[in-house]
Amino acid sequence: MTTLSLYAPGTRVYLPSDDSDGCWITAEVLSCTKSADTLTLALRDENGKESTLTGSGASLPPLRNPPLLESADDLATLSHLNEPSVLYAVRTRYAQRKIYTYSGIVLLAVNPFEPVAMYTPEIVKSYIGRNKGELEPHLFAIAEDARAAMLLDGTGQTIIVSGESGAGKTESAKLVMRFIAAPKAPGLNSDKNSFVDGASQVEQQIQATNPILEAFGNAKTTRNDNSSRFGKFIQLLFDTNQQIVGARLRHYLLERSRISYQTRTERNYHIFYQLCAGLPSEDLQRLGLDADYSTFHYLNQGGPSTNELNDRDKFHATQDALGVIGIDPERQTSIFQILAALLHLGNISVTQTRTDAIIDDEDPSMGHAMEFLGVNPADFKKWTIKKQITTRSEKIVTTLTAPQAVQVRDSISRFVYACLFEWLVTAINESLMGKYGDAAARAETCIGVLDIYGFEHFDKNSFEQFCINYANERLQHEFNTYVFKLAQDDYVKEKINWTFIDFDDNQPAIDLMEGKLGILAILDEESRLPLGSDASFLQKLNAQLDKPANKAVYKMPKFANAAFTIAHYALDVTYQVEGFLEKNRDTVPEEHLTLLTSSSNPFLREVLDTALHRAEPADPPSPNGAVSKVPDPGRTSLAGTTGRGTSVKKPTLGSIFKGSLGTLMDMLRMTNVHYIRCLKPNQHKKAWEFDPPQVLAQLRASGVLETIRISTAGYPSRWKFEDFARRYYTLIHWREGPTLMKREQWKRICALVLQKAGVDRSKHQFGETKIFLRTGVLATLEGLRSTKLDAVLFMQTNMRRLIAMRKYRHFQRSVVGIQSHWRGALARKSFAKVREKALKEAEAVKAAKAAKAAADREKRLADRKTPTGRKTPTPSENGSPGKPKIRKMFSFGSKEKSALVLPDQPSPEPPLIGRRPSRLEAATKRLSRSWYDSDSSSRAKSPNRAKSPNLLAAPVPKPAWNSSTNLLH
Ligand SMILES: Nc1ncnc2c1ncn2[C@@H]1O[C@H](COP(=O)(O)OP(=O)(O)OP(=O)(O)O)[C@@H](O)[C@H]1O
Predict the structure, then answer these.
(1) Whether the Cβ atoms of residue 820 and residue 892 lie closer than 8 Å to each other
(2) Is the pLDDT of residue 955 over 60?
(3) pLDDT for the residue 200
């Protein structure tokens, strides 16, 4: 198989499209000529445009797959694994309303942006107990795969759902969890709250977490109306009997900046709008709120509410869900009070004198806020407009400017909200695992679902994008290692010769971000300096990192001043340093922290206590001292301390995030990982619209293409000998194939197939049980197979036609024969009936005549005996032949015997006086009359007929038969 044959005329290839969108159009090779190492291809693209292309190796256009493979449900089975083929396969399937596609161990899920009937109880049922690959690709197949792997040996499983904002991560994660948590009962119903009959308590509780987390952790963004602004990891816990006993929730990097600022097209967290729309007016009044939320600074910067009615309904759903996880109405009121306090905080007006910031003592917003927070307004005011710097020898108090005071005010709101969110997650966990984590202690194994933000790249990228991309870089590293390890494991197991495949390891980028002298370390150091600034941070970055060793991953952008660029595995991202320090610090001043922790509001104190002090160790012991065997990513305290009562440190957001990410990665390594990559097909959230450049960018960013590249570098196609032989044995000689198949000499067949197809030795290897093929081999084999099958099909079609024609003719002849036979049989049957009837009637005539003769004789005898006075007429008088004559007639052999049977004249009928004639007599009479009336001339002609009436001569009704019918046969 040479390059020349790969580009033989008729071959279909991809060419870069003219739209400079990084996509392709398809083309067909018209001719291919080789000179030295280069090929010259004459091509005609799908628009009919012809062109010539000269190149070699990678500069030749990527090949298109045979039609059979083009919309394969597993991209790993594509023979030509290249970017356009992958994109084309995903696009074709999406057009066929198939939103899921496998890419090796990854499931790609393209958002349909409209409800699809793919999650019905019947479909859930069909995936239970089925192996991945048996049915169409589906989220449930991945979930069932994880469940089956866990049931097999109790190993923990993790399903990582990633993708960009609005790609469908949360929806997919919810479906996966519902599938796993749903009881696998045989009876399924259509209750929309449960996949199966009788949702388990855990399923109900897990479902209840959704409205709460969505209300407090989701917001409308430009990319998604219900965007999760935090990463979450839910672990479903199973006991020794592999029954679900509870669940555990961990969360990552809640976006705090949204509390105090939103762009015009976005909104704050849903709960604030729900509160204003859903609370009864008296409660609103008590909390100093207004149904018109536009009076609040924290709510009026962003866009309008999508639907207030919706907000009201959602508020009631949130209240119900809070009830389900055990937060009673009283506590709910306390939560709403804190939320109201935050809205009032945002409305505290800070003005600027010539040098200092001032807050009016009578500011009603401050009054409300401090009342609900339980903090002294004067203290609050003091530490909002002033700052205390502690030096070695003394404490210096300085005044702040108005913008600085606003920063402090907002940082308090963000901090309190983050603590409230943390407290809610703790409450959810208590409901899912029991107060002391009983369920976790009882659990033997788990299935975790990680719903984490995907790689982000905007025009302006800030600290949030840095953290998100850092997380993705770490996850990608785990993914590469895992995929790579799987591939290499197979090679080792199958004992094939292989050399280590080089792939783009993203470890340098990770080191750059989290290393000892990396970006996060420099940021932390700068954040702790009282005079630290974004500019000095950037200076330090450049001084420390802009070195030849980091050339590949760290760049100083040419045209942006306050920015730095990181070459991520997906693409280069430039980050603007403005706000990095502030966001990384994002803790309240020490004085405010003291005020809040000593608040007169017990609920607020509990919230802060939970968030700051109760950092859970990875495996919390239950009251009886049992420690969970299930790996737990743990929860990092917002204060960064472990244990009650220790001093409250102020960790930076970056360090908190790095810590929690580290434990998450450790946990992932202890479990089997399954991947779901969600893809957003277009930016307008339009159903069934596919924007190729956008999807391509996501495929690159999700690492799917990199995985494909890793696979392509090795032997991407690997088949069991038997499977390969069964599919391609037709390619070898027809005498050999079936015999070898019968003898099950699979390996020999594989070797013959490759030999026959001219596959180079470097393009394949035989393992212990599998055959390994390089990229492109399968496409060649498929091409040969389909050519051969076409020929076979042609032969078969014609042979079948001939056989069918022959069969038809034989059948036709048989049908006519059977018809003739049956018609004859029917005719004979009806003839027999007629004859039988005629014979019976003849018998009856005979009997009637005999009876009549007897009656006549008796009458005559009686007449003779009875003296009537009347003269008995002589035989000549009455027409009788007379005694002597009668005697003569009855004598044997008399010539006149026939005269009795056939008298010349009809004998007069005896008078039937006083009696009705019997039926026999009547029949006799009728028959004899009919006989006498019948054609006398014909009777006269036949002497035999004259003796007895031959009723066989009577006309027989003619049955309907055709010319071929032989009645007498
Ligand atoms: N399987 C699906 N069927 C129908 N619609 C879906 C599906 N998945 C996602 N969607 C639609 O896409 C929207 C966005 O999905 P989702 O909120 O899950 O995205 P996300 O990736 O979690 O986004 P973010 O990262 O911003 O939270 C949903 O509100 C829903 O309308």
Answers:
(1) no
(2) no
(3) 67
167 is in an annotated binding site: yes
755-775 pLDDT, tens per residue? 988 888 888 999 999 998 887
CB proximity list for 390: less than 8 A, separation 6 or greater: 396
Query: What is the rounded distance in angstroms from the CA atom of residue 843 to the CA atom of residue 927?
Result: 11
**Strand, helix or coil for residue 572:** strand
Encode 166-180: b = buried (16+ Cβ within 10 Å), e = exposed.
bbbbbbbbbbbbbbb
Closest CA to 45 of 71, 12, 86: 12
Q: What is the ipTM of this complex?
A: 0.99
Q: Which residue ranges have their beta carbon within 6 Å of ligand 1?
A: 111-116, 163, 165-171, 224, 226-228, 453, 678
**CA nearest ligand 1 atom 9, residue:** 168
Q: Are strands 672-679 and 157-163 parallel, antiparallel or unpaired?
A: parallel
Number of the ligand 1 atom closest to the C-alpha atom of 221? 26
User: Using one digit for the tens of pLDDT, what is the confidence trace for 686-710?
Assistant: 999 999 989 998 888 777 877 776 6
Distance from C-alpha of 892 to C-alpha of 544, rounded to nearest angstrom: 155
Q: Is the pLDDT of residue 83 over 90?
A: no
User: What length is written for the chain?
Assistant: 969
* DSSP three-state, residue 921: helix
Q: Beta strands of 790-835 (E only): which ranges? A: none
Instruction: Confirm or deny that 625 is annotated as ligand binding.
Output: no
Contact assessment for residue 200 and residue 244, using Cβ atoms and an 8 Å cutoff: yes
Q: Are 693 and 22 in contact (CB under 8 A)?
A: yes
Q: How many helices (H) and strands (E) does the chain have?
A: 37, 23
CA 718 from centroid of its chain's CA atoms:
26
Tokens of 264: 């015009």
287, two tokens: 């909390």
In this structure, how many other beta carbons lie within 10 angstroms of the beta carbon of residue 771? 26
120 is in an annotated binding site: no
Short-list 899, 910, 936, 890, CA closest to 848:
910
Of 258, 250, 259, 257, the residue nearest 636 (C-alpha): 250
Choosing from 82, 227, 587, 628, which is the catalytic residue?
A: 227
Rounded percentage of the chain residues whose pLDDT exceeds 70: 81
What gap in Å lies between CA 632 and CA 645, rounded to an integer?
24
Q: Whose CA is nearest to atom 14 of ligand 1?
A: 166
- Helix 590-597 vs helix 602-613: crossing angle, to nearest 10: 130
Residue 907 annotated in active site: no
Question: How far is the centre of ligand 1, averaged over its atoms, from the C-alpha of 897 (Å)?
Answer: 117
218 is catalytic: no
791-815 core/surface letters (b: 16 or more CB in 10 A; e: else): eeeeeeeeeeeeeeeeeeeeeeeee
- Residue 163 known to bind ligand: yes
Q: Is 166 a catalytic residue?
A: yes
How far is Cα 706 from Cα 477, in angstroms, rounded to an integer? Answer: 11
CB neighbours (10 Å) of residue 431? 20
- Integer Cα distance of 853 and 816 in angstroms: 56
Q: How far is CA 522 from the centre of its chain?
A: 45
Task: Give, to the nearest 10 degrees, the angle between helix 329-346 and helix 402-433.
Answer: 160
Q: How many CA atoms lie within 13 A of 7 on its CB side?
A: 26
For residue 696, how far is its CA from the centre of ligand 1 (angstroms)?
19
Q: Give percent helix, percent strand, percent coil of the chain, each to the nearest 5.
A: 50, 15, 35
Full DSSP string of 623-655: TT-----S-------TT---STTS------HHH
pLDDT surpassing 80 at residue 560: no
Residue with CA closest to ligand 1 atom 30: 113
H or E, element range at 357: strand 357-359
Query: In the structure encoding, which two tokens stand for residue 274, read together?
Result: 């729900």
CB 446 within 8 A of CB 238: yes
pTM of the model: 0.73
- Cα maximum dimension of the chain: 185
Paired tokens of 335: 């939560």
Q: How many CB atoms lie within 10 A of CB 493?
A: 12
Q: Is 228 a residue of the active site? A: yes
